[in-house]
Structures are given as structure tokens and as C-alpha cells.
Amino acid sequence: MQMIRTQVGIIGAGPAGLMLGHLLDRFGIDSVIIEDRSRDYVIERVRAGVLEQATVDLMIATGLGERIQREGMRHEGVQIAFGGRRHRIDFPTLTGGRTITIYGQNEVVRDLIDARLRSGRPLLFECSDVSLADLAGPRPVVRFVRDGQPHTLQCDFVAGCDGSHGISRPSIPLDQVRTYERAYPFAWLGILAEAAPASDELVYSLHERGFALFSMRSPQLTRLYLQCAPDENLDAWTDDRIWSELLLRLGTDDGWRPNTGRIVQKSVTGMRSMVVEPMRWGRLFLAGDAAHIVPPTGAKGLNLAIADVAALASSLRSFYRTENERSLDQYSKDAAARVWRAQRFSWWMTSALHRLDADSSFDARRQLADLEHLVSSRAAMTSFAESYVGGPLAPVDGEP
Ligand code: APR
Ligand code: PHB
Predict the structure, then answer these.
(1) The pTM of the whole model exceeds 0.70
(2) Would you say domain 182-271 falls under CATH 3.30.420.240?
(3) Ligand 2 centre and the CA of 222: distance in Å?
(4) Cα separations in angstroms, 66 against 56, 112, 343
């Protein structure tokens, strides 16, 4: 049995766990990151790609700016398509200069892994049988198996950054937290295609056959999604069928349509909303998808994960400086307030842009009226733009 000692045990090497380790390292706080998958798996899985202004600012301010400033695609607006027309919402003019950047989650993860390796602090891939104990007391422990050997990690705190299927959230007794949930009766079929993006900006479209989204990953790669059934069988979707549905739902009367190309990845993503409160039990803190899930429509999942750990790193730093637990109590309150703002926005965007089988003709017309209002009222566009580009994060430099 190997014993390891650290200040913060971090479960999960997704964006939340890796960014937390990075911020703590900058504060001189030691951590060990424990991940059950391999390094290649973590880097290569295709996930989100829209970074809020504050996420990009944080990366640059903490020494992770080099590649994102070179390769990230800065967007000054998004387009909303319905009734055969595209309407543009301009971010800088409505938000005092804020923008978004397209940079894949896997690129963020790659940059964070490189930074972790430079720091020399432990990042342990392929750990199995991970379990948590003694979370209510001052010396929580994490147990896991690596290379066939059992290990025990003794910590001051544990950060549960292990996503929606991890072990951290289920380690909290059911009566200690409240879970708020909502399921949606549809999913997204997503593809990555070798095709140059046909627009410089994302296009969110509501068509009578359902939602579709045009996005991108690089000047050579287009990312596209279409609304489908939650139990959709991917085998029933040939490449031809996917393209004809996407072109139908996204094409507009001015002749615009996405470029087509070889499909290099296909998957179905379910849609749900979930929040656990409080995001803390004893010495266990939850962050990112372990604490909350948003439907992808508002592009908030990755940004919320980063906002959580900025707040958590700042709380932990205050604790280590002052030995005062007040900052620890504040974490869940601050993080949950942002989470609920993002939940509201993600729920609204999802409802505004998806078709339900049960919708009446009234519902369909009201939905169009909602979008018409969005693109014709400056107040509505401002509210949308503020939510989409996101607000500031907890300070991670300077005095707490
Ligand atoms: N032990 C160790 N690691 C685990 C365990 C476990 N028992 N269970 C899961 N993990 C790992 C996963 O393999 C994954 O690498 O935890 C990590 C969680 O990462 P993410 O799922 O990416 O979650 P998070 O870091 O919170 O980032 C949220 O991911 O799903 C997207 O849209 C979401 O962009 C958002 C982001
Ligand atoms: C993506 O590019 O993957 C993406 C973009 C916008 C969203 C969701 C996903 O709202």
C-alpha cells in the first residue's frame, strides 16, 4: 500500500480538475490529480468548443495564452436563423467589447496537461477503483489502484471534478444535498466534417423539422448538430441522410448553406439540466459537470466548469492564508448563483430553438414571435449577448 500526502486531492482530469490544479499551483498549493482514463482518451474526446471572454482571459492571465491566441477563432457575434433568414447579434457593441473564442475543449485540456507536466506536480492517469472516505472530518482520503497497486492519498480537501458519471457526487449522503433536474425529450446528433466553415460565425437555426447548429473547430473543420430523438439510432443515419437534413434545416433564402465534406466523427448527445446544492459536503467540493449539467444550447458547460474552479481556487487560497473557513462556505453560494444564471439561459435557448412533437400550432407561432422579439429588440439582444459572452470570474491574481 502506497501512502501519498497532499493539500488538495483532485478527482478527474477534465477542464475542471486540470484548471483547478493549475490555479492552485500558481498559489503554491499542492495537489494530486487522479484520472481513471488514459491521457490520449482525455485529450482526444470531442466535446464543447465555445469559450467565454472570461475563460480566455483566465487562460492568458495564467500563462496558457500562447496557442489559444494563435489558433483560437475570435467571434464577435452569432447568428440566429428562422423563417428562412439569418439575423446577427453583435457582441462587442452590446456588451462593452466582449467576445467569444472557438477553441476545442480538447485543446484546452491539452494546454492544461502541458502546464501540469511543466509544474512537476502529480497527474495520475489510468487510476481504477477510486473511492473517497472521511469526507466529513479534517483529513479526507482518496483510495485508488494504479499499476495493480493500492494507493491512499491523504488530503486537507477533495475536489470532485469527475464529471457527470463520477464517484464524488454519489459519495455525499443523499440527505445532505438537494438535486434539481430536468430532462428534455430530444437529443443532438453531432458531426465533425472535413469542410471549411461556410460562415465566420455560429448559426443557431430553428426549422419546422427541428433545431440545427452550425459551428466549427478550425479553418478546415466544421462542427454541426441537429435535433434528434433521445434514443436515436446512429446506424439509421447514413452520411447522405445527415447532410440532407442539415442542409435543409440550416440553408437560408439568401442561398447560404454549410459546406459539406467527409464526416470524421458522429455521436448523439442527450440533453438535461441538473444542479446539486450545496456544491460542498464537509471537505469535499464539487465542481464542473460533477455538480451541474446544462443542455449544450447555451455553450455554458465548459465555461461553468472553469468559473467553478476559479472560485474554488480563490476560496482555498483564502483558507490557507487565513485559516478562516468563511471563504470555504462562500464557494457554493457564489458558484451556484452563476450556475443558476447559466441554467436559466441554457433552458431558455433550448426551449426557444427546439421543436416538440406535442407542440400546437400556437406554440410554433409563439416560438417564432419569441425569436422575432430577440432579433428586433436591442434590449432583448443585449440580454442575450450578456448571457452568451458571460460575466467575470473570481479574481485569481492579486490579494483575495
Ligand atoms: N475517478 C477518476 N476520474 C474520473 C472518475 C473516477 N471515478 N470518473 C470520471 N472521471 C474523469 C473523467 O474520465 C473525465 O476525464 O473525470 C473527468 C471529468 O471531466 P469532464 O467530464 O470533462 O468534466 P468537467 O471537467 O467538469 O468539464 C465539464 O465537460 O462534458 C463537458 O460540456 C461539458 O464542457 C463541459 C465540461
Ligand atoms: C460546438 O461547437 O460544439 C458548440 C457550439 C455552440 C453550442 C454548443 C456546441 O451551443
Answers:
(1) yes
(2) no
(3) 11
(4) 11, 12, 31
